[in-house]
Amino acid sequence: MKNNNFKLLLTFVGLLLISTIAIVNAQDDDNDRFVNPKFVKLFTPQNDRYTYSTINGSSEFYAMSSRDLIYFTVAQLNSAVDGSTTTSSNIFSLSTSDTIGGMTIKDSYVYALGLNTFYKINPVTGDNENIQDSSSLYTAKGAFTFGNNVFFLSSSPVTLAHIDTTLDFKSTNLLFSTITVAPYSFVVDQVNGYAFLGSDTKPDISIVDLNTKAEVGVFTNASITSTFKRSVPIVDTAKKILYYCSTSNNQLFVDVFSYENIATANTIEYKYSFGLITGSDCSTGSIDTYGGQLFFSVTTDSALLNLGTDPQGNNQGATELEGFEVSSLQTFADISTNKLYVVSETQVAIVSYASVCPNDCSGANAGTCIAGVCQCNQEYYGLDCSQKTCLQLNNCSYAIQGNGKCINGECICESIWDGDDCSERVCPGQCQGRGTCSGAPDYTCACELGYRGADCSETYEVPCGTFTESQDCVDHTYCGWCQVDGVCRKGDRYGPEDGFCRTWYFGQNVEVGIIVLGVIFIVLIGILFLIDIGTTPFVDVKRAKDYAEEFKTGAYPKGTHEEASILWWRDQRSAKAWTLMDQFQFISLISHIGVVFPSRFLNFTEYLDWTNMGIPFPPAINPPQEFTSTTGRALLTYSQYENSLGAGGLYHLANILFWFGLLCAAFLVPLLIVFIALNFLEGLIHWKEVIRNRIIHVTVRLLTVGYIGVVMASAYSLVTPLHSYKIIIPGAILVVVYGIGLPIGIFKLLDVPEARLHNPTFKQQFGCLYVNFKPKTDHRFVVFTFIKRFVMAIIVGILAFEPTPVYPLSGTDMAVPIVQVVVIIIVLIGYAVLLGIRKPYFDHYHLWLEYFLTGLNVITVGLSLTHLKNPSVAGELIACLIQALSLIACIAAYIISWLQMRSAFLEKVKKFFGFCKCGKKDKSKNVDMGEIPTKP
């Protein structure tokens, strides 16, 4: 026999095994191949272990030990509970123990081979016939049927015995055939009538013709002298392919043979080999010829593995049968249910297996897995039948001119074709929407300014200064419109490439809605403050007249409950207006966080920067611009913000202090002049007291309003790259004196007896700090609101240092904006927790307003993290909508405070709207006054 092919195998087997084993070991825990394992224990009445098993077709299961035979239906095995034991009702026992090494089923009889006895057993009736051969002790290796014959295999003596089941079961019916190979393993082709017997010491394979019951040839290789074990054979009867799992040099592999020409050549032809997972041996095996998958139960040092592979050794997957024996008696694949049955000496493992075809051919509607290859239905194509065809679309007109390609049921047309079936002629790429198509017969593109090429896909830069209209400017991705100067300049969504622009539009024209929303905010808070300022002097003057004599002595008259009540409700209402002012300051604050935040939201806050004195110097005193680097405006952080004011780091603190000083002077200087003048008018002593109270009140308010802006600018001055003592020293002094000193001073100011806190004169002067809080100690909660402002202002100012990172953010560049956002969120959440613990507000409406505003602000700041790299229109709109809700909440709380006040006007309104129940509960009883009178 020619063995050239087998010699070639030995030459390359080492390289083959190394490569395939490496691949398979990476997949040896493929949980997608084998799923839903179930273990059923076999009933063993004599504490014995089964030595042989067989599944008759796919309906009956038999297992035999040294004495006992158990049998039941496969359906019972499938329905058994995981971990349960099979029933003991179907048991047959031999009269004496024997060593059973082979068993097969024929016509409901079990034929088995012991040491020197051949058995014919009827497990139902209990009949048992046997033939004894006292001259031999058989080492049985198996039994099988073919036609009317039952065959028995023995390796010692080397014997192939057969019995004709149509004749009486007796010794004269037991015939023997000569075979060359001492069989260690075997497999039978029941269709073509051949048996293949393998050795456990050499690569020989004996070939037996079951029709003649004689050996017709032996496949051998004399050049192999090392130990070679043929462990488990599998046959594909349709393709006449023999797969033999073998072991050599402690490696497992599969030899693949063809026996298509066996009738004429009396031998088998070697085809190829592939490696398997490292193990000591193959235990048993089976094949799913329909799905094209081989299964082997592989014995390792510690466990038994289920291994599945396609016939070429690719797409291998394995799973360990935990708690199972390390070897098996039988492996059987039921192709009708895609279940694998692995039988050991004591139990059966039932495991479902997946198809080896890609994606299981995308389901029954798309294709069918046949022999490991997807056979697609007419409407689908592809290796896994996942792509839909375009049969209903004239196959994309391909039969005519090749106008397009079919991609998953959709025609993808060539650049000059269009339509559902690519039958319509168009200009190349339809000019990409950047030009005009000439139509027939030329179909050429006339490109717009800035684009060129046959399909207008190429771009070239038109100087931005060419455009005089904002819409034309922003239509070009590298140009932006500076609204202040009315010019088009090169840049990106965060500003011009050179210099700065206070109002910058990029990718969109001027948005009137944003401007209108900003104006609405400003007008609303202006109205609220005008109402409060306009209604205050009348009450103050009346009280000052009533107690003019007491004020001459410097006393603080206590006043009546009526006066205290009026002052208390007035400041409650005023507190809601100042809460709205605080919210505006917060919006302006977060616009300077060093993150890629929505540009439209930043443009919106431009109209609210006045709340933190974010107003450029007047042109007459504007300092020289220090902006020179094009990277300084890569992010609209606080450093870019100071550039947008027209001032460098050296002048920014001075800019803020200028407007803060101007604001203080505008309010305080006139009041001081009037106060000094009243010192010389003895008859107007009550007016002097009114002005004194207003000076104190306005001073406290101004210090509160300027707190965030001044502290933020001071903190930024400490880290400015200029490192000039002219800015660092003033910044440090302001952080200590103003940032830290003001909260401490307020704490000391309010650390007075409770009686003083309730005194109307004290309330007129400092009520804006504490009157809306509960009595005793919770009025000092205002200090915590300053601590919250201080931390946020410091973190934004200090972490806004230059140079700002280049967009898009990457690596450690993200650390600064992330820290800014995270710290502010922590501060806001801490503030909310403190609110929950102390509940300091006397008016519970104000408490819930603070809860609501804090939650909205946490969400707004959190949006910054989602826009670190990818700004979105949705994020911009969400941020604006959230802050619009804060406006609505503050206005609602303000209206509720009006309804809580007792006045003649409100009483008339409530009488007119009789259904309104608002304000009937007298909440002033919870303070220190009695009934709130109807009229002030």
TrEMBL record:
Residues 1-26 form the signal peptide. PROSITE patterns: EGF_1 (PS00022), EGF_2 (PS01186), EGF_3 (PS50026). The keyword Membrane applies. The keyword Signal applies. Residues 423-457 form the EGF-like domain. Coiled coil: none annotated. InterPro entries: EGF (IPR000742), Plexin_repeat (IPR002165), Teneurin (IPR051216). It is found in: Membrane. Disulfide bonds join 427-437, 447-456. The chain crosses the membrane at residues 512-533, 584-602, 656-681, 702-719, 725-747, 781-802, 814-835, 847-868, 874-896. It holds the Pfam family PSI. GO terms for cellular component: membrane. Keywords: Disulfide bond, EGF-like domain, Glycoprotein, Membrane, Repeat, Signal, Transmembrane, Transmembrane helix. This is EGF-like domain-containing protein. The lineage of its organism: Eukaryota, Amoebozoa, Evosea, Eumycetozoa, Dictyostelia.
